Amino acid sequence: MRKASGRAGERARGRQGSGHGRPPRDEAAVVSPARPLALSASFVGSFPDPLVRLEPALPEVALIGRSNVGKSTLLNALTGRPGLARVSATPGKTTLLNAFRLPGFYLVDLPGYGYARAGKAARASYRRLVDRYLLERSTLAGVVWLLDVRHQPSKGDLEMQDLLVRSGRPVLVALTKGDKLTRSAQLARPREIAAALGLQEDQLQLTSSTTRVGIDDLAESILAAVGGTG
Ligand code: GDP
After folding, report:
1. Residues whose beta carbon lies within 6 Å of some atom of ligand 1
2. DSSP state letter for 33
3. Any idea what the Cα angle at residue 104 is, between residues 141 and 93, rounded to 5°?
4. Between 143 and 29, where is the model more confident?
5. What is the pTM of this model?
6. Omega into 33 within 30° of 0, i.e. cis?
């Protein structure tokens, strides 16, 4: 996890250090450095098959987290398109992948885990979808794993960490809802969560979809993971 998480982050940090860096190749003239993902994001579709072929074949970054962690809201904030991902009224109901096309890559929204009222069958079909997607998908370049900054990682979060480690994918940890903390807690909580997960603090990105804190840094790391700065 640690090595995997560090890779994209290091590249992103290197990029920040040298000015705006290079935008993704196929949109070089028009990507705004201030809002790197806020460009031609469009919904591709919802898919029950974890190995569905997307056309054209492009690298993917997946978003995953517990239901209600703020995943849809983060996706909207990252793409600058309010309403692109529906902010869920009924968490945990979906067992579909939702794919969004961005310049040169896809963002894939995986269904949230840990929905308290999900039955045994729903949990089993969730595992089938997400395990296969994370373990077998050849186009998967990295995963953004969302954790609510206010809470200690749950049992479901720790199970997800195991799966992510097994998958060997580069992982960026995005801490959500940073605006709900005081300034001092914004400094303390990432350290505590990093310790609980056995990670370094600089492997976690504090974000808030409300104030946009950390959103552009996260976007830069995603672009680095799909080779946008290469
Ligand atoms: P999902 O189930 O992971 O897709 O979570 P949603 O995006 O639907 O968000 C769950 C709830 O958290 C909604 O009421 C959002 O408005 C709220 N939320 C999400 N992100 C933030 C944030 O950064 N700050 C605050 N204050 N609320 C947030």
Report:
1. 65, 67-73, 87-88, 91, 112, 176-177, 179-180, 208-210
2. S
3. 60
4. 143
5. 0.85
6. no
